[in-house]
């Protein structure tokens, strides 16, 4: 288990994350979401013991992770900015990691080379962006970590490789009872894979729940209305608007579906449809709306 206890990390005097608290159970995939600059990468690096928090602590299996080499040998973090040794090949990197990670497995390494169809003798610097991402995942899984932290894990991967990576991670967590934490902007890729989700907003962990509970506690509806409803009308009925066009409204509300539909009916709504709730819907609903003045731009 990973326990994050009231963690605050600052860069100089500027806080990057503040008072973050949550626990992540073994045998689960945890999705970390938030807009750019919210603090996702900082939190991952703090969990990995790279950063020392100014306040609070990260406990892994009952022990603080910072400056704990034994724990770090069971943990692998793959950051968005991939790093490989200069002029390295996958064989070079394999030997490098084998010297540090005691659970390194040559058989896993060779099998993943075949699955990803990567040339182990070719310099990684000559790989495409997507191939470098695959190389990072291959090396990470070959260390057989107990805790795997992935920052923007799907970046640069084509559809086939994204689907492959999801299958690999799901199988790995199930067989090894591991913890995988994924930070990504690609919420559609995380859909159906993660068990729990946390959203960082204004440097704090704004939301932390199982995906199942998130979908049970919120309803997404689409309806038509002959009246010109204002945002105030909708908010007064507990509805947050996602989209409006030509008299049709798509909204999200917390609570029971029947109660939400009754509220919509009271506003004059008709043709009510209850739609599947997605992580992307949740993110857009909780993110502060942005407005841009595009007049006379071009």
UniProtKB/TrEMBL annotation:
Top-level lineage group: Bacteria
Keyword check for Magnesium: no
InterPro entries, A to Z: AAA+_ATPase (IPR003593), ABC_transporter-like_ATP-bd (IPR003439), P-loop_NTPase (IPR027417)
Domain ABC transporter as annotated: residue spans: 2-227
Keywords: ATP-binding, Nucleotide-binding
An MF annotation (GO) of this entry: ATP hydrolysis activity
Gene3D superfamilies: P-loop containing nucleotide triphosphate hydrolases
Classification via PANTHER family: ABC TRANSPORTER ATP-BINDING PROTEIN YTRB (PTHR43158:SF10), SKFA PEPTIDE EXPORT ATP-BINDING PROTEIN SKFE (PTHR43158)
Protein name stated in the entry: ABC transporter domain-containing protein
Organism annotation: Formimonas warabiya
């Amino acid at each position: 288990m990973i326990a994050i206890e009231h963690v605050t990390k600052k860069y100089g005097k500027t806080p990057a994350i503040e008072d973050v608290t949550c626990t992540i159970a073994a045998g689960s995939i945890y999705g970390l979401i938030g807009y750019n600059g919210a603090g996702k990468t900082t939190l991952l690096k703090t969990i990995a013991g790279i950063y020392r928090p100014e306040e609070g602590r990260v406990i892994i299996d009952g022990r603080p992770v910072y400056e704990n080499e034994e724990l770090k040998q069971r943990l692998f973090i793959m950051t968005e900015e991939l790093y490989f040794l200069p002029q390295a090949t996958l064989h070079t990197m394999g030997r490098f990691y084998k010297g540090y990670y005691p659970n390194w497995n040559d058989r896993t390494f060779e099998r993943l080379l075949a699955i990803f169809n990567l040339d182990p003798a070719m310099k990684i610097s000559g790989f495409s962006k997507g191939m470098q991402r695959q190389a990072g995942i291959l090396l990470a899984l070959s260390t057989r970590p107990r805790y795997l932290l992935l920052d923007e894990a799907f970046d640069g991967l084509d559809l086939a490789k994204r689907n492959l990576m999801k299958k690999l991670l799901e199988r790995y967590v199930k067989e090894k009872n591991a913890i995988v934490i994924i930070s990504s902007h690609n919420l559609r890729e995380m859909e159906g894979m993660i068990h729990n989700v946390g959203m960082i907003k204004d440097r704090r962990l704004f939301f932390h729940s199982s995906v199942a509970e998130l979908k049970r506690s919120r309803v997404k509806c689409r309806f038509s209305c002959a009246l010109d409803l204002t945002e105030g009308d909708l908010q007064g009925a507990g509805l947050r608007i996602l989209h409006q066009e030509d008299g049709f409204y798509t909204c999200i509300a917390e609570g029971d579906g029947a109660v939400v539909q009754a509220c919509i009916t009271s506003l004059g709504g008709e043709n009510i449809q209850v739609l599947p709730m997605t992580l992307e819907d949740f993110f857009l609903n909780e993110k502060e709306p942005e407005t841009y003045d595009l007049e006379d731009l071009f």
